[in-house]
Amino acid sequence: MSDQSAENVADAMSVLKDALVAGRTSLGIELGSTRIKACLVLTDDPTQVVATGSHEWENQFVDRTWTYSLEDVWSGVQAAYSALSASIRESFGVTVESFDAIGISAMMHGYLAFDAEDRLLTPFRTWRNTSTGQAATELTDLFGVNIPLRWSIAHLHQAVRDEEAHVAEVRTLTTLAGYVHWRLTGSKVLGVGDASGVFPIDPATKTYDAKLRESYDSLVADRHPGFRLSEVLPSVLVAGEQAGNLTSEGAALLDPAGVLRAGIAFCPPEGDAGTGMVATCAVAPRTGNVSAGTSIFSMVVLERSLTQVHDELDVVTTPAGDPVAMVHCNNGASELSAWVRLFADFASVSGQKLDADAVFETLFTQALSGETDAGGLLAYNHLSGEPIAGLSEGRPMVVRTPDSTLSLPNFMRAQIYGVFATLALGMRVLAEEGVKIDAMYAHGGLFKTAGVAQRMLAGAIDAPVAVAETAGEGGAWGIAVLAAYTVKADGRELGDYLSGAVFGDSAFAVVEPSVDDVSGFARYLERYRAGLAAERAAVEALA
């Protein structure tokens, strides 16, 4: 390194250190399905990631319910924050005491119900559970709006239908992000994007649809006289509004070391779909994003209302409250990752020591030379139920006909296609609605190997797919940006703030769909759709 370069690095580190000492930073914490991540950015320039920290965790399947314990929630949040603090001390020699703002994000939907004493009434039921079919169908018919199985109101109403004793005691119903925010600030609120996965939002008021809320109260009046949704649901806020401050109890909960000071402002807690949109600058009409992790979902900002109700599509909102068509699939890249781990194990026992990134890159690169329709191979990634595919439970499978071509390139292409296939079923419904997409922005570890999954997604949805350099930190970075926006909005709309203050100088790698990839994936999807009958048979046969 030249003397000038070393001096520039020293100057940059000095600027960051001064910002840390002065608290001119914004913190985002996101509770994802497999990792809790903390991301710290400069408030004045959120593209500058100062430090990160993370903690791995995993859901549990207990009594046929996907859940996380609240003890694991807090031990995980504390571990991620501790790792962030340790990184700051190691890099800058600073112990941080305060920030400009904090934001909390987490997996959307699910069911966290508390009584009048704020006691949890039943273990946390996550978005991954598919036991709410009867409730979802009844509510969809009642509201004239698609209510997916994972939505919080579907979980509540299924508990009502099943006559669960705890329903009479429910005084607070919230999401994971809303719960963590509540415990840290004392405020029972949700960002509108997260709230839109709890109960339908009225785009005019940017809060729960009052007529539909009254319809629900009437529906359950005989079984629960006096029940009012308005009394149990958190208040709704839009991006840019302040959503409370860190209390002394919250500071001790987040930082048991006792260094963090109370009083820090919070932005509204948001869902991972909304923070994914922010992290990819996909909040304007005719844009959207795809987020790939344990689950995979797309969000497309609408120019107009959908013409009819579709089971494959649910209408949620951006963090600013604008309508979005969402295609949500419970199963994402987990099965693909399991196969990659298997190949990594083979490499290890063969004496080839490769780190995880190298294994992913090697296998993904192989997929590029596979046949565009994966040579007749099919990969089903369903570890859990998948409503869009008509599956109550999951049975991961690889299926091929005798005349297919089994090769490593075809196998890997089939696995990547398998991640996108159920999503593509929903995206085709959106296309039939006449919804136009100028660009889709993708984020998640699946897109880390440049030009592979991105190219195949472009072929799957027949639209340009862009990946931004700043999207690497994902939703944790997105909620940190929303925290900074709370301080720096200055009357600007969220889209204007993102395009001007955050993404103005960002580089996007854009891949256009190729004719061969589009036609090849279409052939794959046709076989995939037909083969779902084998998936359903496997669910029935293999208990």
UniProtKB/TrEMBL annotation:
Residues 289-486 form the Carbohydrate kinase FGGY C-terminal domain. Residues 27-254 form the Carbohydrate kinase FGGY N-terminal domain. GO terms for biological process: D-xylose metabolic process. Keywords: Carbohydrate metabolism, Kinase, Transferase, Xylose metabolism. GO terms for molecular function: kinase activity. It comes from the Bacteria. InterPro entries: ATPase_NBD, FGGY_C, FGGY_Carb_Kinase, FGGY_N. It holds the Pfam family FGGY_C. CDD domains: ASKHA_NBD_FGGY_BaXK-like. Belongs to the FGGY kinase family. This is Sugar (Pentulose or hexulose) kinase. It comes from Microbacterium halimionae.
